[in-house]
Amino acid sequence: MKTQGPFIAVALAASASLFPFDAHAATFCVDSSDALAAALATSEANGEDNDIRIRTGAYDVPDAGFRIDLREAHHSLSVAGGFTDAACSERTHAASATVLDGRDAVRPLTIETSQSSGIADPAHGITVSGITFQHGNDAIVGALKISDPGPIYGGIIVVEGNAFLDNATAAGVLEGGPALLAATDGPDFAGGTGLFVRNNLFARNAAPNAPAVFVYSNNRIAVSNNTFVANVSTDATLDERVTFASFTFSGIDFSNNVFRDNNPDGTPATFDLRATGVTDLVDNAIVAMAGTPHSESGTIDADPRFVDAAHGNFRLAADSPLVDAGTDAPAGGASAFDLDGGARVLGAHVDIGAYETRVSAEAIFADGFDGA
After folding, report:
1. Which of 121, 211, 292, 316 has its CA 20 to 30 A from that of 366?
2. Predicted confidence band at 372 (pLDDT cuts at 50, 70, 90)?
3. Among 104, 111, 120, 169, which residue's Cα sits nearest to residue 140?
4. Domain-embedded: residue 371
């Protein structure tokens, strides 16, 4: 039985990344769309490590989208939601508390690294955390783009504790048009992990192919404790469609992820992901997979028993087979918080997916992501 826990966890304002980027960053506390746009513009020009803290609330995305070009990309950037006070010194890690809404017209956030030299840089990176990206729309990437046209960025990318809801692309030239595109060669060129997609929710995104995620790295990629549900690949002319697409020479680790009800037309050409000889799978709930992984253990093909999927509540019911079913030491490390901002581990083991199951009534019945 899970112990009771708080629905919202408030923490000090330090970014929830495992990576201690330069502490001497320029810090911005923003509480409006104009302030966020200004902080990104200043961060683009100042040549410093930058920490952009977004206060809780809903933010309409401007017609051009929120955007920053890191240019030579030798500085760190953190964009984090959930700050609850005027000084941005206290934070909730509940993704539903900070919303960037694309109004079905524009991609919410673009982080370009257009002049990156491709030099490996373990000291710097890009972190995006604690934000809901919803109703984004773009021809290439629906919600969040962290990439460059080349040469590829050399640093660490962490996408952690976010929700990607109801984003769409129409044409989709990058692996079909994902809600999230992230690309890096990481901290070295020897196979070290440089790209982390951790503890996120991807729901009801649509694109010709790969509607949830496309990640690219010559180095290793770690994907853990995410929930992928009701994402739809729309191009029925393709021989194969997937929810999650990737390219890497060094390998990709999937741990504690749940895939369910993606590509609901159920055609034989639709899959949750394509596995290759560098794909390692540990304790994932997967319905359909193409290809053959390098290794696989603990895969579950069972109804996850979401609390109320029809209304956007993708938390696990108390009797879900995914409760306590994950690995406590996923490749790339575990988040400190689940998507509600509560403790990541309650009970004997970590749950599979973005949420930890709680007995308290407010956690079971609260719904931060309305499916309407």
Report:
1. 211
2. very low
3. 169
4. no
**Residue 242, in any domain of the structure:** yes
Residue 144 gets which letter from DSSP? E
Domain carrying residue 156: 10-365
DSSP string, 15-56: ---SS---S--EEEEE-SHHHHHHHHHHHHHS-S-EEEEEES
- Per-residue pLDDT reduced to its tens digit, 141-192: 999 999 986 667 888 999 999 999 999 998 766 667 899 999 988 887 777 8
The residue to which tokens 């956007």 are assigned: 312
Q: What total number of domains does the chain contain?
A: 1
**How confident is the model over 318-354, as pLDDT tens digits?**
999 999 999 999 999 999 999 999 998 888 899 999 9
Provide the whole-model pTM. Answer: 0.90
Is 171 a domain residue? yes
> What is the rounded CA–CA span in Å between residue 95 and residue 81?
7
Q: What is the total residue count of the chain? A: 372
- CATH number of the domain enclosing 215: 2.160.20
